[in-house]
Amino acid sequence: MMDACLMAGIEIAHDCSxxxxxxxxxxxxxxxxxxxxxxxxxxxxxxxxxPYNFAIHVVKTYQQTYxxxxxxxxxxxxxxxxxxxxxxxxxxxxxxxxELHQQDKKENFKKLLKISGSKEMVTHFAEPSxxxxxxxxxxxxxxxxxxxxxxxxxxxxxxxxxxxxxAIENFLxxxxxLIIANCRGQYVPNASGLxxxxxxxxxxxxxxxxxxTKTRWIQFLQQLFS
Length: 226
Known about the structure:
Distance between the termini: 36 Å
Helix content: 40-55%
Strand content: 5-15%
Number of helices: 9
Number of strands: 5
């Protein structure tokens, strides 16, 4: 349980998956009081409850606490057992994006990616370089269809673009396995439970983690923002 701001990230979930099966955390800033422990923990004195159901209870309690007083709260329970499968699928997405970006002489694919992750298009949080992962991938799918329809890509790139669409669709298909429970305020309706780091202008030097290396996400960001 992360009683701290901006902790429901795919990078953090990957690190925590070595030590736990479930993570509860917020994509957004946590309000000052944090978890309402007195309300949350009462259930443990009353009945036996599985970790899975307790995680759902944590999210429900968070919504009951902050729903009446805030519009930008988030809280999710993340199934860390599903992270390895998600990382494998995400790595495929990133590899295809790296390849397409390298072949992109007109820089249309680069523009598409930056638009898909821009503040105007994607759900972002108090730290604007943290963007909702599912919303970002959905934007890429939508924009790929638009770019294909308007013939912004070279014909030779079509097979790889179709592969990328399929890879994203496969990831989105297993996404519900990752999110056990999720709540959010009306100001962040597309907050799906996990964010990913996507810088607004340049890659921060301090961004180094196992997820970024394993999936080649850091290589992709370096390429995109170079």
